[in-house]
Amino acid sequence: MASPTPQRRPIPLAIALDGPPVTGRPAAPERFDASGHLRLVRLAERGTLDFVTLGDAFGRPGPDALAVLSRVAPATARIGLVPTVTTTHTEPFHVATSIATLDWVSGGRAGWQPEVSLSAAEAALFGRRPAPAPDAAWREAGEVAEVAARLWDSWEDDAEIRDRAGGRFIDRDKLHYADYAGEFFSVRGPSIVPRPPQGRPPVVIDATGSGPEGATVRQVAAAHADVALVRAQDPGTASAARDDLRSRARALGRDPDRLLVLASVEIELYASGDAVALAELIGDWYADGAADGFHLRPAEPARDLGLLVDGTVPVLQHRCLLRRFYPGATLREHLGLPRPANRYARAREVSR
Amino acid sequence: MTAAPHPSDPSTPRQIHLAAHFPGVNNTTVWDDAPPATGRGAARHPSLGSQIRFDSFVHLARTAERGLFDFFFLAEGLRLREHKGRIHDLDVVGRPESLTVLTALAAVTDRLGLAATVNATFNEPYELARRLSSLDHLSDGRAAWNVVTTSDAFTGENFRRGGYLDRADRYARAAEFVAAARELWDSWSGPAPEPVRHRGAHFDLTGPFTLPRSPQGHPVIIQAGDSPEGRDFAAATADVIFTRHSGLAAGQAFYADVKGRLAAHGRRPDDLKIMPGVTFVLGDTAAEAQEHAAEIRRRQISPQNALLAAEQIWGADLSGYDPDGPLPDIDPDPHSELAQGRVKIADPAAVVAKWRALSQAKGLSLRETVIETTGRQSFVGTPQAVAAEMDEFVRARAADGFILVPHLTPNGLDPFVDRVVPLLQERGVFRTEYTGSTLRSHLGLPEAVTPVWQGEAS
Ligand SMILES: Cc1cc2nc3c(=O)[nH]c(=O)nc-3n(C[C@H](O)[C@H](O)[C@H](O)COP(=O)(O)O)c2cc1C
């Protein structure tokens, strides 16, 4: 069964800010501050893009991606902020509370891209265990996404009651143990952080799945992602991956329309003509039903982003494919993804 | 012949260091005059009193920076406290992850130090060293790390490692953790990173660090822990101690003890700042301040909280007792597991005896006894009196400064900054502007140097 053709207006559009580390001060290139990234995120916000992704790995030079985007959050207003936080070698509890905190400090603009660490060199930085096999690492990433979702839900939205007469700050019946025990770790809960503004910050997973672990990666994305990225050089590849992800999501009992599949495309823009050509390409792929939206990966963000915002975005806006302002406040609102119901609140309603 | 003033002469003025503690997840924080920050009441009062919304953090941090404070401090608790097997519901609860919120605060402050409490038992050196160095880079040299250790398996249930470590192992791990972190922080001092090779009883890590030496060299290291092991750890490696010894005599004894341990580690007394956590209440007159303080204590110790405080000491369910009645007539159970996630009371029988004596002498109810024994604020008086007393504490070497814990979120520090800071400045014991840009410079600490790690303490 062919998947329904995407018909979101505006088209979700995101940008990767990876590339060479940005140092803010030419005079002291050995120091990293946030000014380079801040300039780029503000530019992307001027183009009303939905979100930026910032990749990370333990061996990547520069400050960690979560820190950079936390530093950027108060200095921006609307754009979604999606750092990579690795699930291998890290504590799932810290990962979940950090992303929840990014959502609090950004007023509901956080997302999270889980990634795995597969190299022996990175494993040696921890010295706790050898590098995992790719398939196991992705199964573990799925477990971390599952436990994060449970921890984010572990406080119901109205758990804080400040009941003066009863002396109670919270209604503890509205706090829940995650009680997760999986193949790789267990976590008791509840979270130490109240439910974040978006309920659950969107999870973005690179579901290209080109290696032998591809099926596992796709399955993890189908189960846990709100946004799946699929690296593709032609619309056929993107569309096939989208069909696959949607059918996996359906088989898992999910509404496939709650899983946005974005074609992740590498771009290099040298002149405004390139920017217009990119708008054409986006429009064509979209019309072909290749993807629900786009995640652009500039070869050089500092160069390409300006041309994108001043060249590609206006063309797409003119064709009514992109918005001209942010009507919503949160990343979920930008993406048209509803704020998720709390699983524990639902369970409590049902058992009543 | 007139002698030069002796350095410990209490008539010699000494500069005071000040820090602001975000109100805690405990009954010091009064919450009952503010509507909920999340849930139903939230929309109507978007910022008032929230313990979690970012604007509360921004307000307190900016107030501290307006008052030229050395640093802003966040505590950490990695498992919600429980009582009688259920989540404790009487106090403020719920807070952000420290490093993320401090990195965000770096965007809205310029000079204020940013101190995160982070556990050394449930983290790994490479990752935490990277996160702390990131904060130091992104804040231009304002990061601090309060190194705490956890003793209970209860908290371990949230982590891969699970379990817990006994005290000796906790501090051995913490010391090796800090040593490994310093090796990583130092490893990129030249044009390119030098791979680190750290091998010890607790950690075995190899590879290059991904950040050049940060603006402070090393983030400021804070220690909070009171045992002899904790004090030695601080003497060996910390820049600041956060202590509970806030009384004059207890403070002087602690101060002398800890500073006395420094020489053995080749350090000078000024290399380690001692900062007790303190509370304060101001009034236009002494009587008004006392009255206000008593009122705050009554609000901190609700009838429910009084009963709970007693249950923690007795180690028994006291729900049948009236908080406004007499003390329970039963003996405490020293082996109780009633309270989880709190510091254990060492000698409950002694506490009960003290409470009984007080209750009898003054004719106090259970709740009044709790209010009388546990709720004391450190500094109560007019702004003039509080400024004078703080000055005296520091001159008398009971402290090098204070970590102020306001009882209201987020406005609790405002009166102190507005009314006491100018008086400290008039006395010439507190800065009138920031002279440096890094937290190390505010604290008058020497450049970060890496002590040679000598392996496991023998
Ligand atoms: C003033 C003070 C503040 C503390 N703050 C924290 C905290 O925020 N989080 C935490 O996990 N432990 C905190 N601790 C606990 C210590 O890290 C340590 O675990 C505890 O004091 C037991 O160590 P000890 O046996 O050396 O005293 C604090 C301790 C003190 C004295």
From TrEMBL, chain A:
Pfam families xrefs: Bac_luciferase
Highest taxon in the source lineage: Bacteria
Gene3D superfamilies per UniProt: Luciferase-like domain
Keywords annotated in UniProt: Flavoprotein, FMN, Monooxygenase, Oxidoreductase
Boundaries of every Luciferase-like domain copy: 29-283
SUPFAM superfamilies, alphabetized: Bacterial luciferase-like
GO terms, molecular function: monooxygenase activity; oxidoreductase activity, acting on paired donors, with incorporation or reduction of molecular oxygen
Family named by the database record: Belongs to the NtaA/SnaA/DszA monooxygenase family.
PANTHER family: ALKANESULFONATE MONOOXYGENASE-RELATED, C2H2 FINGER DOMAIN TRANSCRIPTION FACTOR (EUROFUNG)-RELATED
The protein's name: LLM class flavin-dependent oxidoreductase
Organism encoding this protein: Streptomyces benahoarensis
Lineage, uppermost ranks: Bacteria, Bacillati, Actinomycetota, Actinomycetes, Kitasatosporales
UniProtKB/TrEMBL annotation, chain B:
Molecular function via GO: monooxygenase activity; oxidoreductase activity, acting on paired donors, with incorporation or reduction of molecular oxygen
Keyword presence, Transmembrane helix: no
Keyword Ion transport included in the entry's annotation: no
Domain Luciferase-like stretches: 47-397
List of residues binding FMN: T117, Y171, S227
Keywords, alphabetical: Flavoprotein, FMN, Monooxygenase, Oxidoreductase
Catalytic EC class: oxidoreductase
EC number: 1.14.-.-
Annotated Pfam families: Bac_luciferase
Family statement: Belongs to the NtaA/SnaA/DszA monooxygenase family.
Protein's UniProt name: NtaA/DmoA family FMN-dependent monooxygenase
Species: Streptomyces benahoarensis
